[in-house]
Amino acid sequence: MKFNDLITKISVNIPIIKDSCDNQTEIIDIALIDGRQNSFQGNVLYFGYSSQLDSVGTPPCHCILVNDGNFLTDRIQNLAFVETSELFSAVNLARTLMKSSGGGLLYEELIKRANETRDLQAVVNTASILLGNSLLFSDVNFKILAHSTSIPVTDDLWKDNIRQGYCSYDFIQAVQQLKPIQQAGHTTDAIEVSCTESPHRKLSSKVFHNDMQVGFLLMIEGETPVTPVHMEMLEVVSHAISYTITHYFAYLFQTGTRYQQLLYELLIGAPPENIASCFPGLEFASKLIALSILPTRYLGERHLKDHIVSALKEVLPGSHVTYHEGKAAVLVPLSKNDDFHGEQLQELQNLVANEHLRIGVSNAFTHVESFAKYYHQAVSALNLGKRLNPENLIFYYIDYQFYDLLDHVEDQSQLGLFCHPALSMLRQYDRKNETCLYATLKVYLDSGCSIKLASEKLFVHRNSLVYRLGRISEISNVDLNDSYIRFMLRMSYLIDCYKGQAA
Fold first, then answer.
1. What is the pTM of this model?
2. Which positions ≥6 away from 12 have C-beta within 8 Å?
3. pLDDT for 358-402, tens place per residue?
4. Crossing angle for the helix pair 3-10 and 87-117, nearest 10 degrees?
5. Backbone angles phi, psi at 481, to 5 degrees
């Protein structure tokens, strides 16, 4: 509740004189000036005597005072005066008004924000400012759906969770062991969920949609100490988030299948050896692959879930989908081959082109417990493919395995040391003589060292290619008939490609 509104309501029953009203900060609590405060909170209304502020360096922003001293009250932004006999009556009435009306005004402001922006992040940011502390909203799987940026989260544990967009399996298990969590009822009542691993006090309130819990709000104490009023306000924020979900984000909380839950838990780190016992009765094909799907023209998660995934399941029947780090993570059964083929491949290519998608495809595997490991292959193929072959839309891990190995080299600047010196010699020779021996050798190696195939790709006569290969051997002093030399040269070209140096 803002100062002016509170003074107006108090003045109905108690004589009160408003002196100034220059600050529109939301007031979330009231307190008495006791002479021991070293500092004052910017969103608290203080009651007392002006003489109690004589020795104070920086006075409170909001005060209702009995004027009994020489303190220069013009230093107070929001100020009203009452008689001595009315001071404690004003305190009690203000407390009652804060409790009965404050939540309603807060709710109205958040609903207005929701209708204006249709944005969970905007609602959470507004609530964070009004509560004076950082705030985040997570679904029941501990995916972070929104977090305050106006008052950023400073708790190290939750900063890590926000950075990756979700909480790890081990983190979730630890949270679920907290007694307040285990004892919490099916209500929006705020509870304290502080833990020994963090110095910050925390309050949590469940969020419901259609009478089913879909997530929770977490307020993390910062510069504004937690008060009982925060618990009431957090419950109000929970109802405002429920309203926002119902009107604008219901699609985010469609009931998932047990298959989807299993895949998601594997991706966030659930122990593979324990997963089967947690999801009995689920059946999978004997051969599987994982896909990572990323829209290049992102039209929102609703479009991804309702349209793209639905179309994908028609092309790849029997697939199961979950969502992780902004991508669709897909488990696909394989019937005969270790790859897509024929009409199915054509349908997938059409879908990818028409819907502006890029897809990473893992190698085949046999046990669903390995899904997370192979899904990371699909993600690696997607990321490397976008960088190295941006003209393509489907990227197979088998084509990028060596590049993935290079990705894991700690000091990337040292990769050039592993290249065969022949490549550097050929590049220098080409620059000096305006030839193309570097590219010729690459095509020859890519063609399996076939004179016939390489000459066709280069559009030269086979005798011309033989001549060029002879010059390459002379210039770089390599024996192209040596299988180990061929391997080293091939590896060197892959390193050059990875570093963006391939001609």
1. 0.71
2. none
3. 999 999 999 999 999 999 999 999 999 999 999 999 999 999 999
4. 130
5. -90, -10
